[in-house]
Each structure stands twice: as structure tokens, then as C-alpha cells.
Amino acid sequence: MIFGNINNTGDMTIYPEAIQRAVKYLQETNLENKEAGVYELQGKDMFVQVIDTETAPRETKKPEVHRKYIDVQCLISGKEKIGFAVDTGNNVIANEYDADRDIMFYEGCEGESEMTMTPGTFAVFFPHIVHIPACFDGEKSKIRKIVIKINTEIL
User: Fold this and answer.
1) pLDDT tens track for 138-155
2) Fewer beta carbons below 10 Å: N end or C end of the chain?
3) In what order do the strands lie in the sheet with 113-117?
4) What's the rounded Cα separation, in Å, for the pair 138 and 55?
5) SS (HEC) of 43-89
6) Measuring CA to CA, how many Å separate 35 from each of 49, 75, 103, 151?
7) How many domains, the chain?
8) Which residues is 8 bridged to in the sheet?
9) Tens digits of residue pLDDT in 61-101
């Protein structure tokens, strides 16, 4: 997992090229005015999801994990908490893996930690990292976030 801020990335050459490209996109694109939806960057190998949603209590959220894509999640507005943990293989499956959506949900998450996302922060979740996005931090918050999906095959 990588955690950073698009306004202070340091030496990005330490990141794989696809992640560098994703962060550069986040830095150079006006994402506040972009319509919610899905946009291609590199066909199905790299695409952008612009999401407007509202945070909710952690206990109402199911942890998720992906197998094929890396998530680069960046908060544009609002405030959210994201739970995360290494996928130990011990979590109880709530919904079996859906290959079309590249997602599986768990009932809970063993060894969960959390981070606070504020505008400009980004987190990179590799397929072995369980994550629980859009949790509120004390109160509901309308958020706009960008999720750049990167196919692991292009790393």
C-alpha cells in the first residue's frame, strides 16, 4: 500500500510507471468539475471512476478486495476514513468473487487499521490489501473521490 498527497509526492520515480501516470493524472486534471462516471485512460488496463457519495458508519460497510486491479483512490472533497488490512485469507466471505466487477466482499476484516483521507490524499491498494472506503469520521460527509483502476498485468 502507498499513502501520499498529490501536492507533495516527492520522487515519484520510485513508483511503478503506471502508478506514476495515475498520480500525474490526479495532479493535472480538474477533477472537481468532471462529471461523475467512468473514463478510459488506457482502455480496460487503466480507467478512472469519478464518484460522488456520502460516508457512512464503518459497521454498515463490507470490506472489499480485488484480484486483477490496483485501486488508486484520491479524495477530492470532503473527509473520509478508510479501513485497510493485509488479506490474511482468514476473513469470512460475504459475497463470492465477481470476476466481471473484480470484487469480493468480506463480513469483517482481520487486523484492520484505518487512515483519514482529506482532499489531495491518495492511497494505492494492491490486490492483497482489503479496504473499506467511505466510512465517516464522526459525522456524515459528502465526498468526491477518484478511483483509478490499474490492471496488474501492466505493472
Assistant:
1) 889 999 999 999 999 999
2) C
3) 93-98, 103-106, 64-65, 129-135, 80-86, 113-117
4) 10
5) CECEEEEEEEEECECHHHCCCEECCCEEEEEEEEECCEEEEEEECCC
6) 10, 15, 24, 23
7) 1
8) 5
9) 999 999 999 999 999 999 999 999 999 999 999 999 999 99
Domain that holds residue 95: 2-154
CATH number at residue 48: 2.60.120.370
In this structure, the dihedral spanned by the alpha carbons of residues 86, 87, 89 and 94, taken in order and rounded to 10 degrees, is 140
* φ, ψ for residue 68, nearest 5 deg: -105, -30
- Whole-angstrom distance, CA of residue 141 vs CA of residue 146: 16
Question: Cell numbers of 74, please?
Answer: 484520491
Identify which of 140, 150, 144, 149 has the alpha carbon closest to the alpha carbon of residue 36.
144
Q: Which residue has the cell 505493472?
A: 155
